[in-house]
Design a protein that fits this description.
It is a single chain. This protein is mainly β. Strands 1, 2, 3, 4, 5 and 6 form a six-stranded antiparallel sheet that branches. It is globular, with a radius of gyration of 11 Å.
């Protein structure tokens, strides 16, 4: 499995049991650590609902900037990742 997006470098991702993509871990001082925390759940990308890592990869491989909708605890944050 190749890198989904350069902005996610250093993050370990997996399908979340209840839908979306779970951030299982984030390496310290990695690119991803600027944007993500362990336990975050990616629920959407570029205004599309994301249910699996494959769907996230499909959206990311279209190129350009990627805006992720991330659930962090009770909050939802938008994380814009610049185009590679």
């Amino acid at each position: 499995a190749g890198l989904v997006h350069p902005g996610l470098a250093g993050a370990t991702l997996a399908d979340a049991p209840d839908g979306g993509v779970l951030v299982k871990s984030v390496e310290a001082r990695s690119v991803a650590s600027q944007y993500f925390r362990t336990g975050d759940r990616i629920e959407g990308a570029n205004r599309q609902t994301i249910a699996t890592l494959k769907e996230l990869r499909d959206v990311a491989t279209r190129g350009g900037a990627l805006v992720l909708r991330v659930r962090r605890g009770n909050a939802v944050v938008l994380v814009p990742l610049r185009a590679p």
